[in-house]
């Protein structure tokens, strides 16, 4: 889930590249749903609410989305952390990985509250769940392999 199609396309290319390597990762074993829109967070929330037969085992989520929607008369904005928390409420064993250009440092003031919101719910640092968008291709593949396979390639 990202607000830009190019990021989703790039991530899919990386996953196919990981599939080509000699790993136990086989992309064809997964039903992949990609969502690219500023409203992506709201779309995932609707899927969780209205498609009860869908199971989410893994989620690759952008943190900053930007879409806004009026809910109960108030303008609401969702971010990737909101979506991750809702996924975990429905699928507590789901693996979540954020890919983001947003720099969230443990000692900085998080003006958007991503870090605090995540850490309050998950009980651990969000930094353990982030793949920076500016990672090298090799670093990205290693993080994805660790995410899906539990081990570096």
Can you characterise this structure?
The protein is an alpha/beta fold. It has one domain: Rossmann fold (3-Layer(aba) Sandwich), CATH 3.40.50. 39% of the residues lie in helices and 14% in strands. It has five helices and five strands. Strands 1-4-5 form a three-stranded parallel sheet, with helices on both faces. Strands 2-3 form a two-stranded antiparallel sheet. Helix 2 packs parallel to helix 3. The radius of gyration is 15 Å and the shape is globular. It starts with a helix and ends with a helix. The model has no long low-confidence stretch (mean pLDDT 81).
Map the helices and strands.
Layout: H1 5-20, H2 40-50, E1 58-61, E2 68-71, E3 74-77, H3 80-90, E4 95-100, H4 114-122, E5 130-132, H5 137-149
Helix pairs in contact: 1-5, 2-3
Number of helices: 5
Instruction: Estimate the global geometry from the Cα principal axes.
Output: globular
Radius of gyration: 15 Å
Determine the CATH superfamily: Response regulator
CATH architecture: 3-Layer(aba) Sandwich
| Largest sheet strand order | 1-4-5
Class per helix and strand makeup: alpha/beta
**Strand content range:** 5-15%
Q: Which oligomerization state do the chains in this entry correspond to?
A: single chain
Order of helices and strands: HHEEEHEHEH
- What is the percent of helical residues? 25-40%
